[in-house]
Amino acid sequence: MRRKLFGVILAVCIGWFKAEALTDAAITTKPEVVNDQNQTSATLSCNLTNPSSPIKGYYWTHNGKTIDKSESTTGKAFIEHEIKKIDYHSAGLYACVFQTEPEVNATIEVKVLPHVVAYKHSENANEKDKAVLICVSHGYPLPTDWSWYKLSEDESEKTPIVNGTIDKYEIKNTPNKTTLYVKDLDINEDMGMYQCQGTNEIGSASDKIQLRVRSQLAALWPFLGIVAEVIILITIIFIYEKRRKPDEINDGINRKISFY
């Protein structure tokens, strides 16, 4: 009976120690977040204390994907990863993963300004038609707010474009994309430079799109050009034939006189 009681107490103690070991396992990250826009590079570090089991190895991930050449089978509890250039390519969620039983990990955020770029920097459309202007964003975090502006001729002033304004404009946004629809195009009012701007918690970035509006008659110009060429060609042939015929008649008369 005593042996059974001792065995139960021993099992409870072992389980308690294992739970304590698992609970006490902790990873200290440095820095916790990278968001200094003046910083061009960074060294991320993780320090594992009180692992629940021996460390069999470790690796780093970036946005859920294992970083090349970051895997190791050493039992180090302090590991580092260097980001040589901080930009929208390298921004995102980094995680250090220690291969213990079970695996433990910690996350470090690298945040930058949104990288906003126009899908096309020049857009052409016909008068009375609808123009579609698109901007996209990359990096982390993605914009939480999008804005559109119509710029003045010298681009010194910008007028905000409000979604649904007098049925002229329509704006559709997702975190990584914004689309501006300009309806019923007017060659005098709508042609010009437009600006899209994306904003996240770090700040704002923008890009520009040139909208060119063609006259409704623009599509007729190629046809009119062909018609003009045909008319000129017919005129030349007509003039040539008119000048040639009297010479042929005179030549025929001269031949008859010579024969007689």
From TrEMBL:
What is the topology of this protein in the membrane according to its UniProt annotation?
Answer: Single-pass type I membrane protein
Residues annotated as domain Ig-like:
31-109, 114-212
Region forming the signal peptide: 1-21
Compartments it resides in: Basolateral cell membrane; Endoplasmic reticulum membrane
Any one GO MF term held by the record is: cell-cell adhesion mediator activity
Kindly give the InterPro entries that the UniProt entry links to this protein.
Ig-like_dom, Ig-like_dom_sf, Ig-like_fold, Ig_sub
A single Gene Ontology CC annotation of this entry is:
axon
Q: Read off the Pfam families from this record.
A: Ig_3
What are the TM regions of this chain, as residue ranges?
219-240
**Where is it mostly found?**
membrane
Which GO terms of type biological process are on file? axon guidance; dendrite self-avoidance; homophilic cell adhesion via plasma membrane adhesion molecules
Q: Cite the entry's keywords alphabetically.
A: Cell membrane, Disulfide bond, Endoplasmic reticulum, Glycoprotein, Immunoglobulin domain, Membrane, Receptor, Signal, Transmembrane, Transmembrane helix
* Alphabetized PANTHER family for the sequence: BASIGIN (PTHR10075:SF107), BASIGIN RELATED (PTHR10075)
Q: Return the protein name.
A: Basigin
Q: What is the lineage of its organism?
A: Eukaryota, Metazoa, Chordata, Craniata, Vertebrata
